[in-house]
Amino acid sequence: MGEELFWAIRGGGAASFGIVLAWKIRLVQVPSSVTISIVNRNLEQNETLKLVNRWQYVADKFNEDLLIFVRFVTVNATNQEENSKTTIQVTFVSWFLGGVDGLLSLMEKSFPEFGFVRSVHQVKLDYVKKPIPKEVLETMLKRLYEEEVIGKEEGKGDIKAVESYLNWIRSVYNYMTPYVSKNPRGAYLNYRDLDLGTNNNKGPTSYAQASIWGKKYFQGNFKRLVYVKTKVDPTNFFKNEQRVPPLPLLGVNKNNNYA
């Protein structure tokens, strides 16, 4: 290929120079933990423009393990009084090759104006099979506005504010119980909800115990997933807080029946 053509294809768009059939990639070392953060601000907040301006002067001077870039998007917003207006949303996205503690320490030194703090973020998701009554939707939306007030306090890093946020999201979740899927109440795996239950820190987790959250995520497919897990990872090498558990090899057969 030659060095010049390789250089041109990498940055000049391959379509101008030929058809790329394959790439040979050299892997590089990365740490075991990578931290990504996304923070949204709007230009109506007095400090946002100051942060953007400050970012211009420090972004290229960060530690080489940290990248922060900024996006600007026009959005339409409606407040609780149902007044609609157009505003500019500024999104700060950071990628850091390391853990949360390292990122917080680095931001405190390199970009203290940003006010990065450790906080809690929890997401819950429901599946709705029947239309939700209009009055329930109205109440739900009003309760969602509470997040803005709670979130501002929680952003200060105060433990009581974190507890208030968690209590708020759990109360909304409980309020919606009569209007969402049942037996079991469905959940979405990519929004891992540890309130549903977790595996044991020590020792194996029983099929019955894991079914509490497993059937919420996978419903009728959970039993089959346990069979596959037992077959391909009987020692439970791949694990997390809500892993699909393996069973003793003698306790499961290919027909998904359990002893």
TrEMBL record:
One of its GO terms (molecular function) is flavin adenine dinucleotide binding. It comes from the Eukaryota. Residues 187-245 form the Berberine/berberine-like domain. Pfam families: BBE. Keywords: FAD, Flavoprotein. InterPro entries: BBE, FAD-bd_PCMH_sub2. PANTHER family: OS08G0158400 PROTEIN (PTHR32448). This is Berberine/berberine-like.
